[in-house]
Amino acid sequence: MDLIELTRRRFLQGSAATTVVLSGGSRLMFGAAPDPSPQAVTHDAVIYLFLRGGIDGLNLVVPTAGEDRVFYEQARPGLQIATSGAYGALPLTLASNAATGFGLHPSASGLRDIWNAGRLAIVHACGLRTTVTRSHFDAQLYAELGTPTLSSGTGWLARAFAQQSGINGAPFGAVAIGGGVPTSYLGSTDTLAMASPRDFALNQGNWDWRRGGESRPTGLRGVQETVADLWTQGSGPLAVAGRGATRALSTVAVQPFANRPASWPSSGLADQLWTIAQSVKFELGLHYATLDYGGWDTHDGQGTAGTGYHYYQNKVAELSQALTAFYTELSASGHIGRVTVVIQSEFGRRVRSNGSGGTDHGYGNPVLVLGGPVNGRRFYGQWPGLDPELLSDTFGDIPVTTDYRRVLTEILMRRMRNNAISQVFPGYTGHQALGLVQGTDMTLLGADGGVYDARPVAPGTPAPTPTPSPTPPPTAPVERPGLRRMIGLQR
Description:
Largest sheet: 9 strands, mixed
Number of helices: 14
Distance between the termini: 54 Å
């Protein structure tokens, strides 16, 4: 009898573990949450928002003056944003009210207000500095791995989290909001992933039988309560993982997650940002969070700005409104001072519009950084201009003049006090801070144990030539269908 009971117990444990894995699983299984109570928060949170599909940055941050405006209008006769009027670009001025020659898309009024508050900065012509590709698959992979010129089995955020001091088992240390774990967390066994805190449960059996309580019969023990008992003892990997799963479930269950406020926009992106805002306010140890917002592959019917239907206009409005609600919420609660949001896409679009009312895959693109610690209302990096002759070397695309890892490295060091950059971004060298965010600089911890200068430089100054130099960009865009076939993915 004892042997039969033991075998049954092990069978249930294995079945429960399989349920966790197959239901979205290692994400839920290994998302440890040892203590659901608030902690004394002395750290920052970095929110990484990836705009999948390649946003047209040139119609988000619009040239409004000078010869670049002339080149812009010539390249986009039917796709340009006006400089004035009801649907004209929103001027971006410096703190001195001096003009910058750029404006935001007219649907981004909320982002313009954050800019005027000094909490939004824009990095010109940012992206994959050492690799040129017009493949969504490859560009996203390179950006999220953080190793554009090297092979890697882990994502940059997984490595950053592993090197982050002061985590100490924080229940919400690394969170992915959405249907799955992005590649930036690849290799992490401590990431908590959930599409919605209200639906965070073992996906097994009829919904009414997953939990006890509520309107269910008195004394009923649901699947989750039963599974928790199976993992109370044991030191093997399965038992440890099982306890991590139950801790994650219980931690989320006891938090007062509420419905999105009526004052917030009613979009999927807003829902995700609302979950992150609550997680920050609950002070459960959130250090890193990711979310995706796709739909930016505007090859045809992109639209501009005006009355009637404009696809791109609606997308920008949704992005701006959701980020503004997030910023306003955390400003009101006093938490925005330790939150930095990075908004990045895999690449930009071509300067010249195509014959289908859209834009094709390009190269350099603006990266937006907003939050309380941001030295905003300023542009950073080096703007290359839109002169077609100068762009001929990059086949008419805006080149990349600032490596996106330069932006992330500064945030990691100044805000997260993480200087293990050789581990987070192997192959990236020669870093100098742009001055994007507040904080003191750290010496870079090299893979060889050495330290490297990371002093800030004036905005607009390109990074020094790294030593040793990374692989230079190829002379033509690179596609790698073989890599897609090898990994078994298509995009």
